[in-house]
């Protein structure tokens, strides 16, 4: 098993990609700290995981104090952290003009300060807060660890709304800066840039927006959460021990770069 005896924190693991990553990690022998803003869904994930010892934690990644408190609880429960997957995220926020997504030129002008800021709070600040707290524990336990940040094809090319693209590009910047600083400490930091994946997040995307994307995908389908989970297992495990500051994009060929 590729993650035996590892303690892994997965944020946003009450749904979609995060839940599948938690499952794949548990299959590979890891013990999971399943965190989500939705405490009930985090508990449901724990009940689905193979193996024992997994625990659920309620955590709002956009709140610094909430993240500090959650990692203190994880430390108290497990005594260390070996792997962090910064997966929690949203693709829209109240006041982001999303209702105009099929009308050319209308999303940006209808995006409010609050809609933009909330996106940054969850998708960017959240990655920073969790990474910082995980690194403190990784450094305390002998300077080793693997961090995987969830970006998107929106961070690589012209997909997604302005605030989502900005946030997911920032996640790649965080990944590279952290990889450079933490490499000498034995902590690897990489990113995954998923294409269009079947999860509750994309269930709300109108067919008129989704169909052209599938049409432009050489593999002719949307991805499954498992397609991303397998990439996360690779980046979290020793199989990628010489890989840091990189991104991997399971996207069916929708973008190639
Ligand atoms: N589904 C896709 O097509 C796709 C593509 C590219 C990137 N992504 C990224 O993958 C990640 C997972 O997305 P998904 O498709 O599984 O979505 P999802 O909506 O199914 O799951 C997201 C999870 O994050 C949690 N969450 C939201 N806000 C939170 C907060 N403030 N604190 C803690 N948890 C919070 C939600 O409760 C939910 O459980 C996200 O970062 C998303 O941007 C998804």
Structure description:
It is a single chain. The protein has a single domain (7-90, 113-195, 226-248), classed as Rossmann fold (3-Layer(aba) Sandwich). The two termini are 32 Å apart. Helix content is 45%, strand content 12%. It is α/β, with parallel strands linked by helices and 257 residues long. Bound molecules: nicotinamide-adenine-dinucleotide (NAD).
Rg, please? 17 Å
Structural class: alpha/beta
In the CATH hierarchy, the third-tier topology is known as Rossmann fold
Number of strands: 7
- Spell out the helices and strands N to C: EHEHEHEHHEHEHHHE
At the first level of CATH, what is the class? Alpha Beta
What is the CA–CA distance across the termini?
32 Å
What is the compact description of this entry?
This protein has 9 helices and 7 strands; from the N terminus they run E-H-E-H-E-H-E-H-H-E-H-E-H-H-H-E. It has 257 residues and is an alpha/beta fold.
Describe the structure using short key phrases.
257 residues; alpha/beta; Rossmann fold; seven-stranded parallel beta sheet; 9 helices; 45% helix; globular; binds nicotinamide-adenine-dinucleotide
């Amino acid at each position: 098993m590729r993650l035996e005896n590892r303690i892994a924190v997965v944020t946003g693991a009450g749904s979609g990609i995060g839940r599948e990553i938690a499952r794949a990690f548990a299959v590979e022998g890891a013990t999971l700290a399943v965190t989500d803003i939705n405490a009930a869904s985090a508990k449901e994930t724990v009940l689905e995981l193979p193996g024992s010892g997994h625990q659920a934690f309620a955590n709002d990644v956009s709140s610094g104090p909430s993240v500090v408190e959650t990692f203190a609880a994880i430390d108290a429960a497990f005594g260390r952290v070996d792997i962090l997957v910064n997966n929690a995220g949203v693709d829209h926020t109240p006041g982001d003009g999303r209702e105009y997504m099929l009308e050319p030129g209308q999303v940006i002008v209808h995006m409010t300060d609050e809609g933009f800021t909330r996106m940054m709070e969850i998708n960017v600040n959240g990655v920073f807060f969790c990474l910082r707290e995980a690194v403190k524990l990784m450094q305390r336990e002998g300077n080793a660890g693997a961090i995987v940040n969830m970006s998107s094809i929106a961070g690589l090319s012209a997909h997604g709304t302005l605030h989502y693209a900005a946030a997911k590009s920032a996640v790649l910047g965080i990944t590279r800066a952290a990889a450079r600083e933490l490499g000498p400490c034995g902590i690897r930091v990489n990113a995954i840039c998923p294409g269009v994946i079947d999860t509750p997040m994309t269930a709300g995307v109108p067919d008129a927006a989704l169909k052209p994307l599938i049409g432009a995908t050489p593999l002719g389908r949307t991805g499954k959460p498992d397609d991303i989970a397998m990439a996360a297992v690779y980046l979290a495990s020793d199989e990628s021990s010489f890989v840091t500051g990189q991104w991997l994009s399971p996207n069916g060929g929708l973008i190639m770069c």
